[in-house]
Write a structure and sequence with these properties.
Radius of gyration: 21 Å
Structural class: mainly alpha
Helix content: 55-70%
Largest sheet: none
Order of helices and strands: HHH
Length: about 110
């Protein structure tokens, strides 16, 4: 989703700035720009999705999942690998300080 939006936002912003009357959802120009932005997002996100599926971090749309046995009834991970990221305490403190600074500094 991040790759999709990373491509959609700049395309839509640049196009809306240069096409008059494209700010209103009632105009055809708005929907054309959104369609082109979505196409750019698809092109940007496809390689990442391909990599995630090929590394078993995400299932493909045509994935046939095995039937659950009685022992697997409570598990909802879908057979995907989970990656746990460890955050260093210094990084966590830095992120918290930055969040508070941005939130309360005026």
């Amino acid at each position: 989703m991040n790759c999709l939006m990373a491509a959609m936002v700049p395309v839509a912003a640049i196009a809306k700035a240069n096409v008059p009357g494209s700010e209103s959802p009632l105009s055809a120009a708005f929907w054309f720009i959104m369609s082109m932005a979505l196409l750019a997002g698809f092109i940007a996100a496809y390689p990442m999705n391909w990599w995630l599926v090929s590394n078993h971090l995400k299932h493909g749309m045509m994935t046939v999942r095995p039937k659950k046995s009685n022992a697997d009834q409570g598990k909802e991970d879908g057979g995907m690998k989970w990656i746990w990221v460890r955050v260093r305490p210094v990084t966590a403190v830095w992120l918290l300080a930055r969040f508070l600074l941005l939130k309360y500094y005026k």
